[in-house]
Amino acid sequence: MSHSLICSRVSLSVRFCFRGILKLHHEKNRIMSSAKLESSIQFLPGIGPKRAIPFANMGIKTIRDMLFYFPARYLDRSTILNSSQLAQFIHEGNDSEVTIIGTVYNKESKRFGGKEILVVNFRDKGGFFEGIWFQGARYHINKFVIGETFAVSGKPAFSKFGNIQFAHPDYDKITEDETQQFYNTGKVLPVYRLPKELRERNIGDMSLRKMATAAVDQYAVYIEETLPRSIIEKYKFLPLSELVRRVHYPASMEEVNDCHGRLKYEELFYLEILIAMRKRNVKEELPGIMFENKTAMIREFMTTLSFELTEAQKKVSREIFRDMLTPKPMNRLLQGDVGSGKTIVALIAMILAVENGYQAVMMAPTEILANQHFLNIIKLIKRYTDAFPERIVNVSLLIGGQKKSVRMEHLNAIATGSSQIVIGTHALFEEEVLFNRLGLVVVDEQHRFGVVQRARLMNKGLNPDVLVMSATPIPRTLSLTVYGDLDNSVIDEMPANRIPIITSLRGESRLPAILEFAKEKIKEGYQTFIVYPLVEESEKLDLKAAEENFSELSATFLQDCRTGLVHGRMKWSEKESIMKKFAEKEFDILFATTVIEVGIDIPDANIIIINEAHRFGLSQLHQLRGRVGRSDKQGYCILVTKDENAAAASRFRGQIDRMPAWMMEKFKSAIRLEAMVQHTDGFKIADIDMKLRGPGDIFGIRQSGYPELKYAVLTEDTEILINAQRDAFEIIAHDPHLQQHQFHPIKSHLRAHYSESLRYAHIA
Ligand code: ADP
Ligand code: MG
After folding, report:
1. How many structural domains are present in the chain?
2. How far is ligand 1, taken at its centre, from the CA of residue 307, in Å?
3. Model confidence, pTM
4. Does residue 495 have its Cβ closer than 6 Å to ligand 1?
C-alpha cells in the first residue's frame, strides 16, 4: 500500500518534470517561429527591398501581416457562366450577380455628348460579351490589354443591339493557368484588395496572389494558435494556421464560410474577454460600499405612496437591493419603457442609502428634467415626512442655471451632509461639488455613466454604487457588448392603469382639423404639447418655426385657448416658470422644441402633436410620445409631416415586420413614421431602429474603448455573439488572470494585439 503510494508519487514528479521540459521546448519553438513571422516581407519570393516599400505603406511589413492580409472577395467557380448560359440567364429575367471569364479582343472609347464612354469586348468559348463604362473611361481603358483574360462580375443585361452587356462590372485579371484550373477543378479564386500603391509598382492581382501563396506555403505552419483548445474543439473550428491556409486558397465557398465563422467568433470572443475583465475590475478589485439591510424607512415610505408597485418594479428593486447589500460596487442598468415607473424605483434605492447614513444623487440630462425630478421627489418626501415627523430627509437641487446664492446654499448643505438626496445635471460632478458621504449615484436617461465620470468620483475618494436608468430599450446585442460590463434589470410591465396611446400620421394639410381636436379636448381637461424639431445646423431657423407658430396660432386659430412657449435658448428661470405653469394647468397648449423630449411627466398633458415628424429619429419619436399616456386617460400622439410623406408611409402599413433590411434602409424615413403608428412597444421600436440604422459603428463600441469589429456584424451575428460572451465570461470567472496553461494563448494574444484596450480595461 505504502509502496505503491511512493511509486505513484515518484512517477508523478517525473511526469511533472518531463512536462516542464516539454513546456520549455514548446516555448522556445514558439518564440523561434514567431520570430520568423516577424521578419520582413522582402524575403518572400518576388518581393525584395524595393517592392517591400509600397506594401509597408499599406501596413504590410512582416510576413505575419502578409499572412493576415485576407482576400477581400472570391470568385466562385459555381457561379461562373459562359456566354451562352448567360444569354439564357438574362432571358429568364434573373437579376443576380454572375461571373464570366473572357479574353479581350477589342476596346474602344467613344465621345458621346461630351462624355467619354468605354466599351471593352470579350470573347469566350461560347460567344461574346461586353463591358461598358460611362465614367472613368480613361482610367479603365488602360487596365485592359488585348489578348488578356479577365473574370468579369456583375449583373448582365442585353444592350440596345442585343449584346450581352455588363455596366460598370468588377473585373480581375487572371492567367491562362488559373483559368484552366478554375474550369478543371472548380476552385474558388481569391481576390485581394489592390491599392494604388501596388498597382503603380506593377504589382497586379496575379502577382499578389502568388506572393500570398508563397507566404502561406512557407510560413502558415508557424502561426501560433490564438484560441484555447477547448473552444476549438467545442465549435470544431479550424486551427488558426489551417484557417490562414484555407482562407487564401479555399476549395469551396463553404470553406470560406467556415473560416469566417471562426474569425467572427474570435473577434467577438476577445471583445467579450475585455468586457469581462473590465466588469470584473470594477466589481472585484475596487472596494465598494456595503449597505446594511435597514428598510424601516422604505416600509414607512411605501405606506404613503398613492399606488402599489407593479410586480416588475418589485423585482428590479430586489435586484438593486441585492447589489447594494454586498461590498462590491453596484454597476447596474435599469431598463424600462417610457412611463414604466423607473423614478420611484430609484427613489426607493436612494432611501435605502439615506437610512444607512449615506447621500444619494440623481443625475438628469437636462435642467428641466432635473427640476421635475426635484419637485416630484420633494412632493413624495414631504408626504412621507408629514406622516412620519421624526424622519428628516433633505433634498437639494444643483443645476447650471441656478442663482449663485441658491447654489452656494445647496453646495454647503451637500458638503456638510445635511442634504441627503441631491438632484441635478452633470453640474453635480464638477470640481467644486464636495460630497459628505456619497453612497449611491442614479443616472437618469443617459446611456452611460462613463468611465471618466467614475474615475472623477474615485479621485474624490468615492466609489459609490451606480444605477443607470434608460428608457430606450437596449437590444440584446448591445447589452452584451457596449453595456456588457453592467448588470441588467428590466421593468417589463406597465402600471395597470395605462391605456395604449393612439398614434396617427397626418399630412400638413390636416393641421386645422388636428388643432381643432386639441381644442375640443381642452373641455375634457386635456393639455397638449406641440413640438417642433430642432436640428443643430439650423437651430435659429427651427426656433423661428416654434416661435412664429406660437405667436401666429395663438393670435388666430387658438386665440381662445391659453398657450405657452418653451425652448432651449431660454434662460433657466424662464423655462422653469413656464413648465411650472403648465404643470399647474395655468395654460392648455405648450409650444416646444425638443427640450421636452426626455422624461417630462405631466399626467394631464395627453396629446402630443409632433411637427415635421420625418425629421426625428425613431427613438426620439418614441421618447416624445412617452410624454403622454402617463395616466388613466387616453393619450394621443399625432405625427405631422408633408402630405406626400404621410401618403408614402401609409403604403407600408402592416408590412414592416416582413420587410428585408435593404428595403427598410431605402425607405428609412417613411418606415420610421409607419413603425410609430404600428408599434407602441419600446423594444419593438428599438429593434426596428437598429435595422434602420444598419451596421457600422452605431453602437459606440469604439467610443467605449473597445476594438472595432472587422468580421462580425452585430445585427446579424447575434448567435455567435451570445456564445462568445458566455465562453469569455466563464473563462474570466474561472481564471481571471488567465494563469492556467490552457489559457496562455489568450493571454499572449491579448498582450500582443489588444494592449490599447487592455489598458482601458484596467482604468475602468
Ligand atoms: P419613467 O419610467 O418613464 O421614468 P416615471 O417614473 O416618470 O416613468 O413614472 C411615470 C408615471 O407613472 C409617474 O407619474 C409615476 O408616479 C407613475 N407610476 C409609477 N409607478 C406606478 C405604479 N406602480 N402604479 C401607478 N402609477 C405609477
Ligand atoms: Mg423617467
Report:
1. 4
2. 9
3. 0.69
4. yes
